[in-house]
Design goal:
By secondary structure, the chain is an alpha+beta fold. Helix content is 20%, strand content 59%. It contains 1 helix and 10 strands; from the N terminus they run H-E-E-E-E-E-E-E-E-E-E. Strand 6 and strand 7 form a beta hairpin. It starts with a helix and ends with a strand.
Length: 163
Amino acid sequence: MNYRIITKYYYLIAFLLLTNSVFSQNEKQEKMELLNFMVGEWIGTSKVYEKGMVSKQGSAYQKITYDIDKSILVIELNTELLQLHTIIYYDEKDNKYYYYAFSKRGVSRYPAEYKNGQLIVWSNEKKRFIFNRTLDGGFREYGEQLVDGKWTKYFEDTFKNSQ
């Protein structure tokens, strides 16, 4: 009789673990699918701002794809001003996205959130990068810094899908 009770508990625990694993994977997949608006091959312009004026400008190319069964988003950015390889990952334990940026200077890791149809990456409390879709079906990434209590744009990359 004890054997049957132990067996029932074993199956119940195994079922709960499998169910949790399936729901966890579904949550991660759902969070990553929110970033579908970023996927594509994009061409456009990169601008750097100083005191509200464009100080530098150049051509930009960006390829964004999913990898490892859509568990990460890979961004390859090439501009005349910057080359950057980025990985975006959703961590279900922390309930947040992480943005890993790789450049010639090294790697940085920043927390990110999906809010109002855009991805917001926080490099610190006073600097953020925002990724969103434009009204004409394009794609935009821009950076803002908090100056005297006001968010001020310091760079902007605007793209159109090249496919």
